[in-house]
Amino acid sequence: MKKNIFLISAIGLMFLLSPLAGLAQKDKALAWWEFDRVAEGRVIDSASGIEDVVDGNYKLVPGVSGRGLKFDGFTTVIKRRAEAAPKPAGDFTLEA
Q1: Which of 10, 16, 28, 38 could form a disulfide with 95 if both were Cys (CB 3.0 to 4.6 A apart)?
Q2: Three-class secondary structure assignment of the chain
Q3: Looking at residues 59-87, what average pLDDT do you find?
Q4: Whole-prediction pTM value?
Q5: b/e code 7-31 from CB counts within 10 Å (16+ = b)
């Protein structure tokens, strides 16, 4: 049986999915990844506490604060089972 997977893929550094346009606030985010603690291709979503898989061709690079995740633009994704994915309602902002 094929499992549904929620994938986040982008060019650049992905770190926030927020319901509040223009407000990067971790305590109000639907998903927030801090890439200082990526271990064995896994990262914790600070907003939900869910451990996600980072897959593909990526690099950890120095960021504005701590480390960032540099996506290759083709293969890099953050994977989560679909039933555990955030469910935005109404408007939301995706910041990178």
Answers
A1: 16
A2: CCCCEEEECCCCCCCEEECCCCCCCHHHCCEEECHHHCECCEEEECCCCCEEEEECCCEEEECCCCEEEECCCCCCEEEEEHHHCCCCCCCCEEEC
A3: 88
A4: 0.67
A5: ebbeeebbbbbbbeeeeeeeeebbb
